[in-house]
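Dataset card, provenance and construction

Sequences and ligand SMILES were collected as paired inputs. For each pair, a complete structure of the chain with the small molecule in place was predicted and serialized as C-alpha cells. The example below shows a pair involving magnesium ion. Curators did not alter the output after generation; any descriptive sentences attached to a record were derived from the structure itself.
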Amino acid sequence: MNRPNYALVEVKDDAQEDNIKLHELKKRAALLRWRILQTSHKASVPHLGSCLSCIDILTALYFSELRIDPANPCSPDRDRFILSKGHGAPALFQVLAMRGFYSESMLDNYGEDGTIFAEHPPAPGILPGIEAATGSLGHGLPIGLGMALAARMNKQDYRVYALLGDGECNEGTIWEAALLAGAQKLNNVCVVIDFNKWQATDRSREVMALDPLVDKWRAFGWNAHEVDGHNMEDLLGALKKFPAESKPTAIIAHTVKGSGISFMEDDNNWHYRIPSVEDLAKAKLELKLEVESV
Ligand SMILES: [Mg+2]
C-alpha cells in the first residue's frame, strides 16, 4: 500500500542524494545532543547518558521514517511512536521541537514550576506528538500493541514504533507483549531497543540475563536485526526492513550510554549527573568538531 511521505529528509535511490541525507541527519543529531546538554545543565534534568544513547535512533525515526505531520498531530493515519523508556523524555522533547510540533522556545522553561516539560512524557493531549505517558517501565510496548490491534481491526495502515531500554527488558510486561505480538503476527509493530549495556545502577546484562537478546526476540516470533545504533546508515537500513511480511520487527540497536561526548561515554555516573559550566564548554568543543566533520 502506498504511504505518503511526510519525512523532512527524503529517501532517494541515488548515492549522492543518500550522502546529503546522511549528512543532514548526522548534523541534526549533533545539534540535538547540544540542546539536550544545555537543557540538562540549565534545568538540572538527569538521564543525560540515556538521552545521548538514543538520540541517533530518534533522529532516524523522526526525520526519515515516521509518517507524521506536525501540522496535524492527531491525524488518524499518523504513525504512532511511544518512548517506552520514558526517562529519555528530554531527548524526545527536543526532537519534537526540531520536527516542528511546537516552538523550540517553549523548552526555555523546562523543569520550572508549572511547565509541561518534566522528566517524563506527559499524558496524550497535553503536548503535541506525545502518544503515551511513560516512565513507569514496561508499559510502552503493551500500549503500542493495543494501537496496532486497533489499526488491524479498523483497517488502517499506520505503523506503531516503540523505543525500549535494555534495562527495561527486565520487565515481565515486555515479554508478555512480545508473546502476544508474535502470536497475533502484528507486522505493523516495530520495537527498537536502545542496548546501551547499562541500567540505572549496574550493567544491564549482569542484572538480568539479557543475552542473546536478538535470539530471544526471534524465539518469540519476531523478525529481529542487530545494528550499530549510532550508525545512521545501519539504522535506516534496518528500519527499511520493516514491516516484515507476517511478523513484528525488533531492532536491537547497540549503543553507548553518553554517546557523542567522550568524557560521558560508557560512564554510568551520567545517568544522574548534571553537567557543569566546564563540562558544557568541553562538550561544546567536541560537538563543534562533530558538526564540522559530518
Ligand atoms: Mg540502558
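Derived descriptions for this record:
The CA atoms of residues 205 and 211 lie 7 Å apart.
Residues 15-43 form the longest helix (29 residues).
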